[in-house]
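Researcher: Next entry in the queue.
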Amino acid sequence: LEAFENPSMLGLDPPDHSRIRRLAQQGFLHKFIQSLEPRIAAIVDNCLRTVENAESFDVVEVLAKPLPATVIAEMMGLPESDHIQFQQWSEDLIEATGTNEIEKLDKGNIASRQLINYFRQIIRTKRDQPGEDLISQLIGAEEQGDKLTEVELYNTCLLILVAGHETTTRLISNGLYLLLQAPGVWQELQGDRDKLNVAIEEMLRFEPPVQATQRFAREDLDFHGHHFKKGEMIFLSIAASNRDPAVNENPDVFNLNRDKVNQISFGYGIHLCIGSS
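Model: Structure for this entry, 277 residues:
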């Protein structure tokens, strides 16, 4: 996919990864994320208000898809009039990342080019008229005299878009599905809202939005009886790791009463998801 030919920090090693991440993560400071909560709650209410008199509705179309797209668009400081187009480009781009279907790849590449052109115009405007939004913070981010280049800025915007949109859509829909499948858990949560944080951690563990990731061997190596050659792709299952009985007791049970939920759904180490807060 064209959008990922120039690697973002997701596919970089230090020192480039460290430099870009250090600058980008200033837009994800905990205080800033916490300040978004009232607005996110209002967006949820607006989504659900459209179906308040409906006997049934599709939770993915009504809530799980529009909510993260709207939140990210607002975080980036994009005009409300562009949100629908922005969401469509996002979906085309995301669909193309996990397929080899020519039609979807073509749509993804078109969306990628259109998004980059769109971000180019937005960035040009925000250089002259900066705000409190994420893109303005990325443009202004400066530490030890360092800044993001134009290409790094575009790729960081695309990464935030992809990583924050589809994953949240899946967590909302997977989480609701788990609650509907687990007898009594829905009522348990309604009776004790203090369990919400544990419930979300358990949703992330039990049915992670991202099932797997990949790495490449930098040198020949042997690991737990397996030999890998330099340059080989190593496919890492996040879902399997989350159900490792060595770290989670009865891992195949969805349990809101765990003393500690051990999950790596946000990744691990230097590539821990920048948006985990």
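Model: The two ends are 28 Å apart (CA to CA).
Researcher: Noted, moving on.
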